Amino acid sequence: MNIEQNIIDEIVDKSDIVEIIGKYLKLKRSGNNYFACCPFHNEKSPSFAINANKQFFHCFGCGESGNVITFLMKYNGQEFTEVVLSLAAQAGIEIKQDKKFSKEITQQQKQHKTTLFEVIAKVHNFYQNNLVNASFAKNYLTTRGLSSEIIKKFAIGYANNTSNLLSGLFKDYLTNELLVEAGLVIVKEDGTRFDRFRDRIMFPIKNVKGQIIAFGGRVIVNGEPKYLNSPETNLFNKSQELYGLYEAQKVIRDKNQAIVVEGYMDVIAMAQYEIDFTVASMGTAITEEQIKKLFKHCDNLYYCFDGDIPGQKAAWRALERSLMLVTDIKSVHFIFLPEEHDPDSFLRKFGRNAFLQYKETKSLSLTKFLLKQLCAEIDITSNEGKAKLISIAKPYIEKIINAPALKVMLKKDIAELVELVPSALESIFNNRSRYAFYNLNNNQLVKSKKQIPKFNIIELIILNALKNIAWVVNYRLPENIDNLSPEVQEMIIILDFITTSDSPAMQDLTDLFNFQYLNLTKILHQQDQQDFIELTNQDFIKHLDRLLGRETKKMIRIPQIALKSNIK
Questions:
Q1: Per residue, what are the HEC states of 303-321?
Q2: Strand, helix or coil at 301?
Q3: Using one digit for the tens of pLDDT, what is the confidence trace for 58-85?
């Protein structure tokens, strides 16, 4: 079967290589890249790298490399056509095939999906019937304030505390692969089977057509995890689906707004109080795909979070993922409930009107929330504090690429805070250098352009690390570098790579990763120059601590700020 190259390229571009490989390997993130132990040869330290931007993987140990198609063919032993057709279906790309062959494949795929839907629907009806006869489960829902109408609207059910409850529903339980494929049954290595969901309130997860594609289960008394979702399947991709969207989509379009909460019970509690334009992500931080899906339904998103630490952290992650997606029409806002409340408890105590008034009067726009967070631990009255605000705000401003008017107004707000005219602030932002060069002779920050030395501190650390790999191996590099400046992120990637091989081929790293801020080739050429400055181990640690210490404060600051910033 011949498939045109442009179609193959489109399939590769639209397939998230990180997400797909992440189903098979345990990935460690380092900036925009990911590392894992290579599945194609034995190794103890990760040398298998994935470049998310280039949709490409490469193993520095055995040399295996390629795209998502190459990986699936080698890892699963699949044929090229099989992999391409599967990825195309997931990406919604139509491939022109021989009509007879195409029709046959399409019919098989449709029939398989239909059968999966039928199996899930059958299990869902079973869970609903179980709830009718489970007084303990019904009492739990009643104590949570749910009416019979709301229970019916969201089609809530119950899974009894039996390891093979579904065996009474399916006579071929021990051989039925559809139950496994749908994520309803787990198969152990010895072949033993048991139900995934036991003794849990069952929330059916629907797609926008109203078809049940997965389940979320909540423990009633004690147990871990508190919430358990179906695994990802051919029907269910948790990063793209939103709980409650099917029930709420008409009202969301009519009101041109949606409220995003943290869990199933929050959605249901809001609906109980006729706030029926609410959805929730699938137990994780909201994703870009989910934000895009909501923006197709409305122009205004309101993220509503609990007032506790996890809620504050979730808010910041939502902001980061919204920056590139907001436009001058599509906007996001943040609602922070009092620390002792979640949506359910707030509504119970104060009622519907109080919540809606709180939403209108207390919510923060994206730019207000961003500046409030960044300013919370900065002495904005000092020149040093103003300079720091400019430095840490720049990466976030750069992410706003689809809202030019909003970006201009945000810069204007920052200019007022730091008491600069907008043109002066713009001049600072246009300077790509984020760090002053370090005067290695007297340990002073050099402010004059004429005094800039040959090596800056990041280059110095990299060059000394190459000559003393053990120093890096023994140094604990930060695992979460998402909020570090781009130069430092790239430095961490390089240092992390240095530790993955006894003789790191740095040219491989240069070829694989497109460094935008550090010129690694230029740095490598400086290794043998006569004026290369060799550090002692103590000085190496001191300089790296100083650099990462400054960055780490910025990284940690975001979650901490929210707790201290009395959001109003």
A1: EEECCCHHHHHHHHHHHHH
A2: strand
A3: 887 777 888 999 898 887 777 788 888 8
